């Protein structure tokens, strides 16, 4: 695992923070999660961590970047998890899935969280969960600092997503000040 963390650091690949990963693993264990859909594999770090919680967990993970996908394939093979982690190399918006999952983990383009949520919520089992990472976006969501126009737009979209979750009557959402900010939305 250390090797993957070092690779991510060296090549500037954003992977989940330690605190966030620990929260996710604990959540999966406590809630007896068995099937997971992840949007945003990067190099497979969170997918591998989630699959290692228990050997009856199945993960499907989508990554659009070819090089990151290839690296994820290598890492998953190293952990001999290729029978339990299914990788899809495509833009998530092109992917149609019929399966239902106990957990959908949204960790891809931060400006598009509402769209990912709406695209995949029909793939969620009843009373199960959608988790989203980076709701604080490195502290910028609560910052009054002057930011570039692009960053300001991105932060506005993350704030819109937070409001969308708060207003969504079909889910009960809890926000956690852990790692880079995590939300857990339970389908009613
Ligand atoms: N979950 C990973 C982890 O913690 O190990 C980190 C994922 S990284 C924060 C986000 C990834 O989502 C990037 O590798 C990016 O290429 C991918 N991504 C962004 N938008 C996407 C989309 N529309 N479809 C598929 N992948 C996407």
Plain-language structure description:
By secondary structure, the protein is α/β, with parallel strands linked by helices. The chain has a single domain (2-187), classed as Vaccinia Virus protein VP39 (Rossmann fold, 3-Layer(aba) Sandwich), CATH 3.40.50.150. The longest helix has 19 residues, at 149-167. β2, α4 and β3 (85-89) form a beta-alpha-beta unit. It has helices at residues 2-10, 18-30, 45-51, 66-78, 113-120, 149-167; strands spanning 35-39, 58-63, 85-89, 101-106, 124-132, 171-176, 182-187. The protein has 6 helices and 7 strands; from the N terminus they run ααβαβαββαβαββ. It has a 7-stranded mixed beta sheet with strand order 3-2-1-4-5-7-6, with helices on both faces. Bound molecules: S-adenosylmethionine (SAM). Residues 14-16, 40, 42, 45-46, 62-65, 68, 91-93, 107-109 line the site of S-adenosylmethionine.
In short:
This protein is α/β, with parallel strands linked by helices and 188 residues long. The protein is 37% helix and 23% strand.
Write the layout of secondary structure elements.
Blueprint: H1 2-10, H2 18-30, E1 35-39, H3 45-51, E2 58-63, H4 66-78, E3 85-89, E4 101-106, H5 113-120, E5 124-132, H6 149-167, E6 171-176, E7 182-187
Parallel strand pairs: 1-2, 1-4, 2-3, 4-5
Antiparallel strand pairs: 5-7, 6-7
The structure holds S-adenosylmethionine.
Spans with pLDDT under 50 lasting ≥5 residues?
A: none
Task: Give the helix tally.
Answer: 6
Mean pLDDT: 95
Return the CATH class. Answer: Alpha Beta
Number of strands: 7
Which fold name corresponds to the CATH topology?
A: Rossmann fold
CATH architecture: 3-Layer(aba) Sandwich
Distance between the termini: 36 Å
């Amino acid at each position: 695992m250390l090797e993957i963390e070092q690779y991510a650091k060296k090549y500037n690949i954003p992977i989940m923070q330690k605190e966030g990963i620990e929260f996710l693993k604990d959540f999966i264990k406590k809630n007896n999660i068995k099937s997971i859909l992840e949007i945003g594999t990067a190099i497979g770090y969170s997918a591998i961590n989630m699959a290692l919680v228990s050997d009856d967990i199945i993960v499907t993970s989508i990554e659009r970047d070819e090089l990151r996908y290839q690296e994820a394939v290598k890492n998953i093979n190293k952990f001999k998890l290729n029978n339990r982690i299914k990788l899809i190399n495509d833009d998530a918006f092109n992917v149609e899935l019929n399966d239902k999952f106990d957990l959908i983990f949204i960790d891809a383009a931060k400006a598009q969280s509402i769209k990912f949520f709406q695209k995949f919520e029909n793939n969620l089992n009843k009373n199960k969960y959608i988790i989203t990472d980076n709701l604080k976006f490195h502290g910028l969501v609560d910052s009054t600092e002057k930011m570039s126009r692009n960053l300001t737009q991105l932060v506005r979209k993350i704030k819109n997503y937070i409001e969308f979750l708060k207003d969504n009557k079909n889910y009960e959402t809890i926000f956690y000040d852990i790692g880079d900010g995590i939300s857990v939305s339970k389908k009613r």
